[in-house]
Amino acid sequence: MTDSREVPLVTGPRRMALLSFIDAGELPECARFEDTPTGYVLIVLWHEGRVLMVYERERECWELPGGGIEPQESPRAAAVRELREETGQRVTEDELRFVGHTRTAIGAAQRVLGGAVFTAEAREPRPFTANDEVSAVHWRTGAEPLPGGGLVQTVDEYIVELCRQAPSH
């Protein structure tokens, strides 16, 4: 549960709230948190100044690719796997750049989860094939409307802007 006095950095649809973002320069990738273990990853994948967004079927929302970390899997390995499973895009662990740690409150119960955010450049994007989780992808330039409309996860848009301002982007 979140502390009712904690003010989120940004809130989004589907009862999501970004509680904190700790830049990689402040806290290394290997940092672990007892109160909020790292349970998910997000990937900000760039190509020619555009970022890849996915339309997640169940949540009916445009968001960044990513997902849960399996037992015995590192966040970096989970990022590579999730990106491939959801979008067909392929990067290696070495191509990922760690950007920072997140704390996010999710759902009606406001369960708090920790996340790891990575970014990479897609040199030659692969074609997308819809799957059980993701029905569409879009390379987004900014805040333009996405194809077919639908909700956009504003928490993820906030994270994209943090990555856009990062030194290597």
From TrEMBL:
UniProt keyword list:
Hydrolase
Keyword Lipid biosynthesis listed? The answer is no
Q: What class of enzyme is it?
A: hydrolase
- Tell me its EC number(s), please: 3.6.-.-
Q: Where is the signal peptide?
A: none
What is its cofactor? Mg(2+)
**InterPro entries hit by this protein:** Nudix_hydrolase, NUDIX_hydrolase-like_dom_sf, NUDIX_hydrolase_CS, NUDIX_hydrolase_dom
Protein origin, superkingdom = Bacteria
Q: Which GO terms describe its molecular function?
A: hydrolase activity
Domain Nudix hydrolase intervals? 36-165
Similarity comment text for this entry: Belongs to the Nudix hydrolase family.
Question: Under which name does UniProt file this protein?
Answer: NUDIX hydrolase
Natural source organism:
Streptomyces ovatisporus
